[in-house]
Design brief:
single chain, alpha+beta, Nucleoside Triphosphate Pyrophosphohydrolase, six-stranded mixed beta sheet, 4 helices
Length: about 160
């Protein structure tokens, strides 16, 4: 809350998360199966409200969840999700962090409290495993080199290249 002496108001807060596209040498996408919800997702998670940036959040979440150190990436997409029911909506940042080596893959250690398993899935399998806006987000960035702006995982007419 902000109180300027005359008016008290709340500054809007928008929840945000960041995820990573990581591939193996064959171009297959790293997907993870959470313990706390059904389905599959990408490594990543909520950005901390302590002033953490989306890139810092992406790197931290990947390290916590998989043990992998991400040192480079490209912002592939920003996706706006409207609040619905109990889902708060917010912004989802997706970074293309490129390929990981076989030596890096051998070091993957899952965060047991959050992840049950991982696999590298070709794009068709990943499309079947991922759901909703995330599946659309991954499909929307496929083959693109420019960042894409999305709403609910769908490109918005008039925005972007």
């Amino acid at each position: 809350m902000v109180d300027d002496g005359a008016v008290t108001y709340e500054i809007p807060r928008v929840p945000a998360s960041a995820g990573a596209l990581l591939t193996d040498g064959a171009g297959r996408l790293l997907v993870v199966k959470p313990t706390y919800k059904s389905g599959w997702t990408l490594p990543g998670g909520q950005i901390e409200d302590s002033g953490e940036s989306p890139w810092e959040g992406c790197r931290r979440e990947v390290a916590e969840e998989t043990g992998l150190e991400v040192v480079a990436g490209r912002l592939a997409a920003v996706d706006f999700l409207r609040p619905r029911g109990t889902r708060p909506g917010g912004l989802r940042f997706l970074f293309d962090c490129g390929p990981v080596t076989d030596a890096q893959i051998a070091t993957i250690t899952l965060q047991e409290e959050e992840l049950a398993e991982y696999r590298f899935a070709d794009r068709d399998e990943a499309a079947r495993l991922l759901r909703g806006p995330l599946a659309r987000r991954v499909a929307a960035v496929r083959g693109r080199t420019a960042t894409v702006y999305l709403e609910e995982g769908v490109p918005v007419d008039g925005v972007g290249p």
